[in-house]
Design goal:
Helices cover about 40% and strands about 25% of the residues. The protein contains eleven helices and 15 strands. The strands form two sheets. Strands 7, 8, 9, 10, 11, 12, 13, 14 and 15 form a nine-stranded mixed sheet that branches. The structure holds 4-hydroxy-3-methoxybenzoate. 4-hydroxy-3-methoxybenzoate binds next to helix 6.
């Protein structure tokens, strides 16, 4: 099959959708939320589902007179499943928006369906720079790896780090992190001793960490996806790499707030760059964290939750702008250019690139009141994705 059949079915569905517009006011506005609820990326699914539900609890389930319905599907983070589920949501459920997408391959698998059916696709988690270029219907509320990585490559050489080994997951966001960190670090006079890539599925970090230990750089720069950070941190400590004088730096995915509190002393002092910390000291974030924790048995919201929460806001605001009517192109137009205060700080959906613009913070892991936090100590304001041409 598959591609031609899929495209034909999707095209037919799009035609039906036009005919059905008159009836749209009476029908609910459907958001097809596709997330990895099981499997290796399940923490990301759990975070985003909780955040989307919190948004709806706080803002109601009716927008401009139109009832909003959330349809949650588990893609187990396998892109073939993501594609099939998205096709069913568009053709059978006639969803108005597709949203979620825990990993880059899942977002990329669905981009052609979004284009063919003119369905806005709101990326709440995946963070490879090029995703927004895969379809003109993609809008992103998560972040990009180049945004976070460049900030770290500027910070490190000013803070005694002259040689680095990079260690990244071997797929889209990891390759972005490796390239944008290395190029900038080199430009700043640093030396990248070796670039190591670990498989995304069932990674065994041990041999890679041993190699880093033997190379003995000033620091190891890490990107692993949300949920894998604790394993890296644990083995980094077990091998005594911190004691051997190798520092761990990276994007904030490695000190993921979903897991940070259980990482222990080895995480103390680790500096990362990212767009969100649960400890972000704003009134909007304090309220977000408190209400998220109250609704989810004290679970700490991480950057994935914020991508989901802001994605819901962008969808709600766009629907409001269409007076509740919706329609793929009208919704897309309503999403572009939105400016709002996110729990992460100020945020902006760039109308040209459809990508998120936000602050990138430098953070250091500290213990406060018996818990570990990514404490922000510096900020680079309004960072656009450096991966865009
Ligand atoms: C991706 C990027 C996934 C960053 C992540 O966690 C992450 C991705 C699941 O683009 O696949 O932290």
């Amino acid at each position: 099959m598959h591609k031609r059949t899929i495209l034909r079915t999707v095209a037919a569905a799009a035609l039906c959708a036009v005919g059905g517009l008159a009836a749209a006011q009476g029908t609910p506005f459907k958001i097809g939320l596709i997330l990895p609820m099981t499997g290796q990326q399940a923490t990301t699914g759990r975070q985003i589902e909780a955040a989307a539900k919190l948004w709806m609890a706080q803002n109601g389930d009716t927008v401009a007179g139109r009832k909003v319905q959330l349809i949650l599907k588990d893609d187990t983070s396998l892109p073939d499943v993501t594609r099939r589920v998205a096709q069913e949501l568009v053709v059978n459920d006639k969803v108005d928006v597709l949203a979620g997408f825990g990993i880059t391959p899942s977002a990329l698998a669905v981009a052609p369906i979004a284009t063919q059916s003119k369905t806005p696709l709101v990326v709440m988690a995946a963070a490879t720079s090029s995703i927004t270029e895969a379809s003109p219907y993609v809008v992103r509320t998560s972040f990009t790896l180049p945004q976070a990585s460049v900030a770290m490559a500027d910070w490190a050489p000013k803070n005694g780090i002259k040689s680095v080994v990079t260690l990244v997951s071997d797929y889209g966001p990891g390759l972005d992190a490796e390239k944008f960190f290395s190029d900038r670090f080199l430009f700043n006079g640093g030396k990248v001793v070796e670039k190591l890539r670990v498989p995304l599925r069932n990674p065994d970090f041990a041999p890679f960490l041993q190699k880093v230990r033997d190379l003995k750089p000033d620091a190891m720069f890490v990107f692993v996806p949300s949920g894998a950070g604790a394993a890296v941190m644990k083995q980094f400590g077990e091998r005594g790499m911190d004691k051997a004088g190798i520092r761990l730096i990276g994007t904030g995915d490695v000190t993921d707030d979903d897991q940070l509190n259980d990482m222990g002393d080895v995480a103390l002092g680790v500096v990362t760059s990212h767009h969100y910390s649960t400890a972000h000291p704003s009134a909007v974030n304090k309220k977000f964290v408190a209400e998220f924790q109250k609704a989810n048995r004290n679970l700490r919201p991480n950057f994935m939750a914020v991508g989901g929460y802001d994605g819901m806001r962008v969808i709600y605001e766009a629907l409001k702008k269409t007076g509740g009517k919706g329609g793929g192109d009208a919704l897309l137009a309503g999403m572009k250019g939105q400016i709002f205060e996110s729990p992460r700080g100020p945020a902006f959906v760039d109308a040209q690139t459809r990508d998120i613009v936000h602050n990138i913070y430098l953070r250091k892991v500290e213990r406060k009141d018996g818990q570990l936090w990514n404490t922000e100590f510096d900020v680079i304001k309004d960072v656009k994705d450096p991966g865009k041409k």
